[in-house]
Amino acid sequence: MKRSVSAIYDELARNETRGRYGPIKAHHQAYVRRKYSKYQGMKIVKNPGLREFVEKELLNDQSPTNISGRIKKHEKCLLPVSKNIVYKYIKSPYGRRIEHHRNKQKNRRRRRRRGSSKKLQGRTFIDKRPQYINERQRIGDAEADFLVSGRSGKGIILNITGRKSRAAFLEQIIAVTIDNVHLSFKRIKKRFPELKTITTDNDLPLERHKELEKLLKIKIYFCHQYHSWEKGTVENSNKYVRRDIPKGSDISKYSKRFTRFLERKLQRRYMNCLDHFTPAEMLENHRKRKKRRSVKEK
């Protein structure tokens, strides 16, 4: 069994019933001991409002750290809890459903194969990007990337994520042509009219990037070859998309409604870098301030 003698002895001594050991009975006894011990996050269990909020946000794939920060800073009607208490609640018998949900989200990492890529002409590299973009000083500077299907699948997802607001916008493209890619960029520009610049990879769908710049009235900057960390904001956003659309999936099997659901889900994330506001709240506050300024100028 590859266990020490003492571990087996302790297990038998703890869970024997009338001199006999039954694995089903032992499992139940362990469950009961765990349920009524003080190990779990009893603070959450004893407060229905707090428990409802924590469970809802955990099932919405919020992290325990961000849930704790959100409660402390913005949900004053709820009792404050630390991230450790939330983790203990997940591991307790009361959090079995949540623990199962979180385990499903853990996907095995796969190595990305580097193939030969055609060089795009007339690119402006990230070295020439202004300092105010590097420092995330304004809303409207974004990063873009494509999430591709597995070998047997077809279709891609365009992800544009704001550098300052962290608001992600997704568009599904089944027939991957340059015209369809440009059309998807235009659709996102309608939902994100503040868009001014994009930093992206050297992907072939951006071969006519000069035409795209004129179409969207923006400036496009390119990362260096195989330097994906130069657009870390959208890479982080991709990580959360991949929880629901794992690598190797056939993107064409997912509906456009599901893609929009993922977009709203990403924009509802509590983020420490935003002082535990959500990207949607950041954008909304920015638009309200802009509207007030325009009213004053009139």
Largest sheet: 5 strands, mixed
CATH fourth-tier homologous superfamily of the largest domain: Ribonuclease H-like superfamily/Ribonuclease H
Q: Approximately how much beta-strand content do the residues carry?
A: 5-15%
Text of the CATH class of the largest domain: Alpha Beta
* H/E topology pattern: HHHHHHHHEEEHEHEHHH
Give structural notes.
With 298 residues, the chain is an alpha/beta fold. It has 3 domains: 8-36, no CATH class; 39-100; 124-295, Nucleotidyltransferase, domain 5 (2-Layer Sandwich). It is 47% helix and 10% strand. The protein has helices spanning 5-15, 23-35, 42-45, 48-59, 64-74, 83-91, 96-104, 131-134, 178-191, 209-216, 232-244, 256-267, 279-297, and strands at residues 141-148, 156-162, 168-173, 197-200, 219-222. It has a 5-stranded mixed sheet with strand order 3-2-1-4-5, sandwiched between helices. β1 and β2 (156-162) form a beta hairpin. The termini are far apart.
Task: Tell me the layout of helices and strands.
Layout: H1 5-15, H2 23-35, H3 42-45, H4 48-59, H5 64-74, H6 83-91, H7 96-104, H8 131-134, E1 141-148, E2 156-162, E3 168-173, H9 178-191, E4 197-200, H10 209-216, E5 219-222, H11 232-244, H12 256-267, H13 279-297
Parallel strand pairs: 1-4, 4-5
Antiparallel strand pairs: 1-2, 2-3
Helix pairs in contact: 5-6
